[in-house]
Amino acid sequence: MESRVLSRATNFASIPHLRKLTRESNTPCFVSTRTIGVVGQGGNLVWGRQLRPALLLESFQVMRKDVLKPCLAAAEGSDSAGGEKIAPVGFFDKYPAILTGFFFFMWYFLNVIFNILNKKIYNYFPYPYFVSVVHLGVGVVYCLVSWAVGLPKRAPIDSNLLKLLIPVAVCHALGHVSSNVSFAAVAVSFTHTIKALEPFFNAAASQFILGQSIPIGLWLSLAPVVLGVAMASLTELSFNWTGFISAMISNISFTYRSIYSKKAMTDMDSTNIYAYISIIALIVCIPPALIVEGPQLIKHGFNDAITKVGLVKFVSDLFWVGMFYHLYNQLATNTLERVAPLTHAVGNVLKRVFVIGFSIVVFGNKISTQTGIGTSIAIAGVAIYSYIKAKLEEEKRQLKAP
To answer: How many CB atoms are closer than 10 A to CB 341?
Structure first.
């Protein structure tokens, strides 16, 4: 999850006071609530891009805290001393840090599993265009099933909204495919080192395309990132131009996706928006996969993979890599919505460290001393940049607060 679209804070409908009404009548308590997660009212679309489990989590929290407790207290009445009985507080409500820590752990765990399984597939099935289609295809099926069961209810789409979402989806598709081309061509650790340059491209786009003023301190914090990536690239044993250029194209694509996403904010909830973007991106990815890899896949690609690992493992690997891709982004959405911007920034940096470290251990990639030092400098630079940017955003929010 690497770029994200944030909008204003969500405002929930106020919950009416129910105790007095329930005491006077034995009728059940009914409360209507407004839909949450609407982008125009503060919905949050996080790239990684998958469905927001936070929608369900927040819905249950609102119902439990603001609806069920008043109804329960009213139904039970008062004790002998005249005081009202209060429903017990849940364990995770009492210790929210434990739940947040669990989300962080699952986010990192699923991310690492996805990267490892993804690379293992490329070792016996080197067709990144087709695998990218599988990633998006599994996510789209998940979205369609969610619509079928009403979680969430599918929002209608018109031609005007479609025109806004198409540029976002095209950039999303291009960034995703180019990332996978890089993963297939070079070591996972090297691709993630190159993708550490994404903040540099974001800052450049903000300064020169959107016309936003970037403080000199923020620019200076990016110098170690550029230096570290350059050092790592010069002595990376798995280096090739296909992997390097593809990772750079991914950085540029995700930067432009962020720019177009700001223009595409609507009143539709983020879950439906991402579902439509995934469908469009899937449609965009299919033709290149057929043109670039179709003949090889039909001639020997599928047969070679089945011969090496068997049909069952081949199909299950493709299914699970798509599910892990979806789930780690889903957990990232829920995790990052629970923490402050600074914690979020640190979490993103640590995620990349975990992925790089585990990929080196699992695949036994040999790296030179200079590559190791360069990677460390690049990651440290990203950490400094993320810290400064988060502090600046926090100061802006405090100045706008009444």
So the answer is: 17
Query: Mean of the per-residue pLDDT values for the chain?
Result: 77
pTM of the model: 0.69
What's the pLDDT score for residue 249? 95
Determine the residue type at 5.
Answer: V
pLDDT band at 328 (very low <50, low <70, confident <90, very high): confident
- CA 167/CA 114 separation, integer angstroms: 27
* Pairwise pLDDT comparison (341 vs 382), residue with the higher score: 382
Instruction: Over range 288-308, report the average pLDDT.
Output: 95
Query: What torsion do the CA atoms of 122, 275, 173, 303 make, to the nearest 10 degrees?
Result: 30
- Residue 367 — left, alpha, or beta (φ > 0 → left; ψ -120 to 50 → alpha)? beta
The span from the CA of 117 to the CA of 119, in Å, is: 5
In three state form, how does the secondary structure of the chain look?
CCCEECCCCCCCCCCCCCHHHHHHCCCCCCCCCCCCCEHHHCCCEECCCCCCHHHHHHHHHHHHHHHHHHHHHHHHCECCCCCECCCCCCHHHHCHHHHHHHHHHHHHHHHHHHHHHHHHHHHHCCCHHHHHHHHHHHHHHHHHHHHHHCCCCCCCCCHHHHHHHHHHHHHHHHHHHHHHHHHHHCCHHHHHHHHHHHHHHHHHHHHHCCCCCCCHHHHHHCHHHHHHHHHHHHHCCCCCHHHHHHHHHHHHHHHHHHHHHHHCCCCCEHHHHHHHHHHHHHHHHHHHHHHHHHHHHHHHHHHHHHHHHCHHHHHHHHHHHHHHHHHHHHHHHHHHCCCCHHHHHHHHHHHHHHHHHHHHHHHCCCCCHHHHHHHHHHHHHHHHHHHHHHHHHHHHHHHHCC
Domain boundaries, the chain: 4-91, 108-400
